[in-house]
Amino acid sequence: MQPKDGIPLVWAEALLEGLPDAVVATGHDERIVFANALAAELFGYRRADLLGMSTQLLWPERLRERYTRNMRHYFEHEHPLRFSEEVYGLRRDGTEFVGEMSWGVVRTDDALLLLAIGRDITDRRATEARLQALAAMSERALSGADPAQLAADAEELLRATLPLDAVVVRLPGDRQEPLAGALLRLPFSVGGELGLTPQRVLNDEEMTLVHAVGNILATAIGRLRDEEQMRHDALHDPLTGLANRTLLHDRLDHAVAQAERGMGDTCVLFVDLDDFKHVNDDHGHQVGDELLATLGGRLIGAVRPADTVARMGGDEFVVVCENIDLPSALALADRLEVAIAEPIRAGGAEHRLSASIGLALGHGSAGDVLLRNADAAVYRAKAAGGARVKVFGG
User: Fold this and answer.
1) Which of 106, 284, 288, 314 is deepest in the core (most CB within 10 A)?
2) Where are the beta strands (DSSP E) in 206-291?
């Protein structure tokens, strides 16, 4: 096909040289006839070396057949310029880049030329990929993903997108030490840390990514702590930190189930402070609350590690014990009496307390039955003058 009248080639070259993108013009013989300075810089050649070179050498080998077929089709049909969002180029050093490009056939007064006008978008694609990965990670954090899995995802993301020799995420509570010799350490939560060994100084965009990853991890850890606190608050007395009624009944049911499987008797000790109303009346509820909070810690210290201490409300406490006999239960009740009798300072004064304790023991009784029996026994202890232990049925 003979070219028709077109613009003078010298005019075209002057025009293309001033474009802000790389420009390569190829003749019908599939060799380069023009390349502007940006094209030479992009592909890593001198401009003189590009002229006369086969255009196929600017394409990755895996794509040359397809790109060559497209080029010939464009020449055959004088295909106008068309935009492509993703094309791949090959630099002189063998590295590839991804670009966006407009290419098609244009007519000059000398020849038909395949004109390719494009730019390297490798960095932009990498930035988009990082942002997408961050968005996905953030979504997983907000939906309740395990922080340990997020930490693994964070390490993978940072390794894949940043020039790092090593990276480690230490979550709060982890016993492992941060990366030995880490050049960059970024705390992201109390006890949490990112340890990085970059191959070079990270630029502002790369550091933004690091900080974003840290913020996501901090969000996930904060969410987990909030959930744990909510679960704790739902099952514990806010004043003493002891188990509340809900947790008490759960532990009591578990103890009874263990007893039914032959794991020993279950014991319930009902602890009712003697004349505690006078403390509130004489010294105020603030002092009373201080005494109760201190007493809660003492009760925990007096029982066995596996026993449950709960606050029923007011000045009443309950202790649930699994796999225990009567002598051991009585010894435990005596330890509780001793712990309660120790003086406590609150509100600028020393206070001495005592308690009536009701004890119920069994292995075939339901939890609520044991609790009622222990409550009945404590009334007997109160009626006998307080500051003593009474066993239900004894």
Assistant:
1) 288
2) 266-273
